[in-house]
């Protein structure tokens, strides 16, 4: 479960220095090497070969029947191939539509009515009920403390006088 405490205390100063990746040797990652499939046709053939592996095909079919959008599956599969250095990022973008259509055909052939696109609308404000439910699940201690504090009456807060916002140097009229 995500709400379990970490077995260690994270060091807030143990982070990357801005620009650190620019000082590392080039070619460290697979996607920094020449791609294995430079042509979109070869890259798409590779994707289909891995997709039609019986285990992979079964998992994708189960995901489609569970309502996972085709767009999400395509993004994950194509991005994974790029990260492995199988093809470049521009080839990855070129093969996405073909793989998308291929998954639609597979879903149709399997008798599945697929969800095509992720239903992400514009940013909406999280409702208080949703916030409290998420907090209760992932941070139960903070949720309990917040609920206890909500039961206590609000103390009077001293009014802070509003300052004149003319700045440090007074302007002459």
Topology:
Elements: H1 40-51, H2 54-65, H3 70-83, H4 89-109, H5 128-138, H6 140-151
Helix pairs in contact: 1-4, 3-4, 5-6
What does this structure look like?
The protein is mostly helical. It has a domain of 83 residues. It is built from six helices and no strands. Helix 1 crosses helix 4 and helix 5 packs across helix 6. The N and C termini lie far apart (64 Å).
Q: Describe the global form.
A: extended
Succession of helices and strands: HHHHHH
Number of helices: 6
Structural class: mainly alpha
Main beta sheet strand tally, sense and closure? none
- Tell me the radius of gyration: 26 Å
Number of strands: 0
List keywords for this structure.
6 helices, mainly alpha, about 45% helix, about 0% strand
In brief, what are we looking at here?
With 173 residues, the protein is mainly alpha-helical. The chain has six helices and no strands. The relative contact order is 0.11.
């Amino acid at each position: 479960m995500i709400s379990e405490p970490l077995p260690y205390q994270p060091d807030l100063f143990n982070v990357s220095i801005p620009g650190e990746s620019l000082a590392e040797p080039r070619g460290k990652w697979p996607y920094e090497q020449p791609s294995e499939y430079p042509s979109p046709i070869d890259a798409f053939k590779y994707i289909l070969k891995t997709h039609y592996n019986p285990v992979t095909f079964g998992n994708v079919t189960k995901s489609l029947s569970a309502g996972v959008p085709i767009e999400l599956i395509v993004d994950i599969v194509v991005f994974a191939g790029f990260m492995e250095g199988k093809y470049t990022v521009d080839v990855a973008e070129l093969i996405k539509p073909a793989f998308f259509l291929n998954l639609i055909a597979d879903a149709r052939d399997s008798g599945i009515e697929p969800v095509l696109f992720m239903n992400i609308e514009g940013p909406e404000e999280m409702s208080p009920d949703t916030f409290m439910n998420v907090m209760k699940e992932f941070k139960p201690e903070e949720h309990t403390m917040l609920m206890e504090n909500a039961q206590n009456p609000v103390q009077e807060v001293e009014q802070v006088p509003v300052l004149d916002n003319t700045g440090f140097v007074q302007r002459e009229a």
